[in-house]
Amino acid sequence: MSLPQSVDILIVGAGPTGLCLALALHKHNCTNVLVVDGVEQGENTSRAVAVHAATIEAFDTIGCAEDILQAARKISATAMRSKRGRIETATFGPLAKYTKFPFMIAIPQHVTEQILGKAVQDRNIRVLRPHRVARVQPSAENPSLTDVIFEDGQVVQARVVVGADGSHSTIRENAKIGWADPDGEPTDEKDNRLMQMIIADVILENPPDWPLENINLAVSTDNIVLLVALPGQPYPHISADQLVYRIATGIPASWGPPPHAPDSEYLQKILDAWGPNVVLGPDAPRIVVKQTAWSSRFRTRSSIADTFFARLPTGIGSDGEPLREGGPIVLIGDAAHIHPPMGGQGMNLGIRDSVKLGPVLVEFLRTAPAGPIATRAQRELVDAPLRQWAEERRGRALTVIRFVKQLGKSMTLPNERRWLLGIVPFNPAWLRDTFLGFMCRFTWWRAHAAWQISGLGNP
Ligand SMILES: Cc1cc2nc3c(=O)[nH]c(=O)nc-3n(C[C@H](O)[C@H](O)[C@H](O)COP(=O)(O)OP(=O)(O)OC[C@H]3O[C@@H](n4cnc5c(N)ncnc54)[C@H](O)[C@@H]3O)c2cc1C
User: Fold this and answer.
1) Are 13 and 36 found together in one domain?
2) Where is the domain boundary, 265, 299, 333?
3) Is 133 in the pocket of ligand 1 (CB under 6 A)?
4) Could you tell me the CA-to-CA distances from 272 to 175, 252, 287, 289 in Å, in that order?
5) Which atom of ligand 1 is nearest to the CA of 16?
6) Boundaries of each FAD-binding domain copy (predicted)?
7) Backbone CA torsion sign across 378, 380, 381, 387
8) Is the beta carbon of 15 within 6 A of some atom in ligand 1?
């Protein structure tokens, strides 16, 4: 299908963040919008399963919360399970003081995307695929506009280009926006157990009788394994009466790189080495991986774009830096920030970037002149709301990245004897467990943990 010659807003990427932005723009009566994606169909895999209260609120503002909730499983608490028993680490009920959604939900990402895709279709928003963007450049006739050039040679002129095109973003690269770990941390720490991870959706024989409305973390001496029951029938090839569980864990360097799509045998080794089988002990029936519906491996890292909004470079300035006098480029979702999956924050943050961006873009279109922008002062004036949005969202992403890093560090504390001042022995993992075991007896502590995870304080 041929593409239109020009649009107000071109969203590159029809993942969850691109679709949410299209819905947010529609909500604000902005309709000259086009979403493009390089692939024929969205990915049919469950990737991000946790959706938090602040994100459900964002879905509510674009009219999707009800459908999402219907397809999801409500989660009332997170719990750590070790040989010593269960510690509830976060309780969501007390959030009722602050939100009408005092819970987390579990919903596979492809189900979320199907619901968003249908909402977009119902509203006649244009999503055209497969159309892969090759590059962007300032328009010759008016450099305040951007020519988006596709791999098949078609060109669309846009007033604003939004890069919702994932962590390897072509838009970010073309706009020459830097991308790095915010703390300059190296990405090859060999002893970090959560550096390489696997996730899988499986059917279990003898699953533990842990509450289905909990996110469970099985904690053994060397590792942790996440176990969450997915809602409904997440895969058409698996019958509705079979419960599918998400498992996720870190793979130590000594195991070598995990296979691209770990099979049931590999996943079984994990359950036996560190998972619920270790936690429940040899007297409990052995939990067996009966079937693997989907599995994947990935390496974890954190990166953030130098800015989430910039004008496209039109040349090089006298200071050797790009001269940014072209059209507005905005980054959202994984194109703007990525981090490890602990706490399930990534997709959530991206969706909230999009929903907050909708009204700001509408205001930009209303105030920005249609012709070339003559002076720097004029550009700064029309860009001010977008710049403010970008600074706020980048600050929120930094908060999440640091929270996730902290979570990762505390989860991977070594379970071995260390010496304080060379004379006092202590075991960091034991200290953590003892401290958590004590603090998690208090409702206010668990409610605070729920607040942090929910995103309500960092929407
Ligand atoms: C294996 C795996 C497991 C994950 N697990 C979790 C998890 O447990 N918890 C969690 O929170 N997150 C997880 N994530 C991350 C989560 O999936 C992302 O945060 C989320 O998909 C980001 O959405 P997005 O819309 O920003 O980008 P994406 O979902 O990456 O969508 C980008 C879209 O842009 C399109 N595109 C890219 N380049 C172009 C181009 N040049 N032209 C046109 N279209 C283009 C792509 O085809 C794609 O559809 C996981 C990711 C992976 C890969």
Assistant:
1) yes
2) 299
3) yes
4) 48, 15, 8, 10
5) 25
6) 7-178, 324-371
7) positive
8) yes
